[in-house]
Amino acid sequence: MMDKKKFNPLPQNVRPSLYQLVIDSDLETFLFAGKLDITLTVSQETKTVILNSASLTVDSAKLHQNGANLDAAISYKEEDEQVIFSFNEVVKVGDAVLKIDYKGVIADDLKGFYRSPDTAHPGKFCAATQFEPVDARRALPCFDEPAIKAQFEVTLIADKQYTLLSNTNQVTSEDHPTDKTKRALDCSEAAGLDVQSLMTTWTRQTGFPMVTIEESEQLTPTVRRFKLSQSRHLDDASPDELETLWQIPIRIVSQSSPQRLIYQFVMRSRSETIEVNGVAPNEWVHFNPDFLGFYLVKYPKENLDLLRKASELSVKEEALSPESRMSLIFELLRLSVSGASPVTNLLDFLSALKNEENSSVWSVIVSSLGRLNAVLVGSQCDPEKVNKFKLNLFEKAAQTVGLKPPDNAGDESHLTQILRSLLLFQMGKLGHKPTVDYCRDLVESERPIPPSIRDSVLKTYVFNADGAEQIDVVVNIAKNSSNLEEMVACGTALGYAQTEHVALHAIEFLLSGNVQSSDTIYSFRAFATNYKLGNFLWNFFENNFDRLSSGVCGSPDSMTFSSILDSFTTPHYSLGQMEKMDAFFRKHPVDGFNRKFSQNKETIALHAKCIEREQTKLKAYFDSL
After folding, report:
1. Intra-chain end-to-end CA distance of the chain, in Å
2. CA distance 299 to 408
3. What is the pLDDT of residues 166-177, one digit of tens each?
4. Angle at alpha carbon of residue 344, lines to 614 and 525, rounded to 5°
5. Which strand (E) or helix (H) includes residue 224?
6. Neighbours of 143 (CB within 10 A)
7. CA–CA separation, 456 vs 392, rounded Å?
8. Where are the alpha helices (DSSP H) in 264-358?
9. Are 286 and 252 in contact (CB under 8 A)?
10. pLDDT, tens digit, for every residue of 442-456?
11. What's the rounded Cα separation, in Å, for the pair 320 and 314?
12. 134 in Cβ contact with 8 (< 8 Å)
């Protein structure tokens, strides 16, 4: 059993009074950048300022005091989730402002600044924050201790298509395009385009377009003709009765000119034909490089195959940027869900990325496979063959970063640490024996688990648990720990149990009264991703509804109860199961849950439709491996 850890509080000589935070987020790449000004009160001279920080990369920091600007040397104390700013000169007693530029990943772990599927619009995501109990440090470097209070001024930068919500009063609101939008507009303006007219078609109608390359013909050794069409993309593939049209800024690069545009124009009609100079026979072309335009592109198979090969080579030859590789994954996922492209096209593209080194691209790869989970399970594909596909995809990158972090966390980049944690859990879920053995040894021994991989180690341990006693091991770690982050990690891990008797033991503990109802959300949200146990989870809910609604999961009208209820109704893909749940809630209505359940039903129906359409092709695909 692990030794009880000592909680290391921040020094008391520096305290914040005001955080002024600007966050620019991208829900396509799942990355965000932050600019943070913290007004400080220094009560004792110091050469260091220490803040809490986890899963963030600080790019630069300066301290302004009495007209002086002090550059900070940045280091990390991973075991305490702290970032240390060191200065060559003394920071004097009085007021100061610490200015920090940093970046992070919008993860899917319900911590800090995280992403969650937008069930009202399948295939899209929303971003939210969870700062309790010690998760603010995952969204911004800060004094993340309950006793340290300060005021916040927060600016969110997002595209106009998103709705921004806050639990505090809004001070101002203005159109503030993201860097990506700015770059797209700058390109359009540079090309002499009417930007205001172009933007009107995006801001005054819902949804976004899909551009289909209907035909491609090589006219000369350097000129290729493309016939393009545009249509409104809908995940449920329902007809667009409004016959919506956009003004779409089309930008094109090619294999011989991957970094420089060879053609750009604005598509205004339903169908247009263009002739593009600078494309040799058998060369790939990429529309919308770096995903600057908000539209999907459906390629003919021959060009998609060439882009897949280009992505396989991109790490060394830089043929396609990481942003372009991520955008292609995103496009293929959305097109697969709607039926505009077979799921096998996405799987083929992912299989070409086993040499990938970029942590952001890997995050998108893992996310896309997670989105396909319901379809793969519901299509009754051979689990061993599906795992073989995933193992072949992850294994090389996992071996490159290794299982064990270096003894000195400063010996590697923070992005490498994020990548290791991500891949460790993926390999653990596949039952990779060295990974499972490593995690089991760490959890069951008295050695501390390195903080950078703690979540993944605990989740891997529970995922591969074959007995209730292993749940008890994780529970005891949480009970004996004074590290709040570790306790939350243990609770989250319980939701990854894969067999019915182990999952039942975990659920009974969560409902035993030994865990605050608000803290059980982490575990139950993990259960929500478990399509393998979907029917078991629903049967448990149905048989224990009176008990669950009696207050053990919070009051029936609380957000906690609604979140847990959502977890029992999410991991499903069968229309029959959806009808069964629908009948139950007609008989046992829950105030405030109707809208959320309606969204879940839409997602289930979308999964069922995709399974019906793709099942035969998917089974044949994996049988051929």
Report:
1. 42
2. 46
3. 655 555 555 555
4. 75
5. strand 223-233
6. 22
7. 20
8. 301-317, 322-338, 343-351
9. yes
10. 999 978 899 889 999
11. 5
12. no
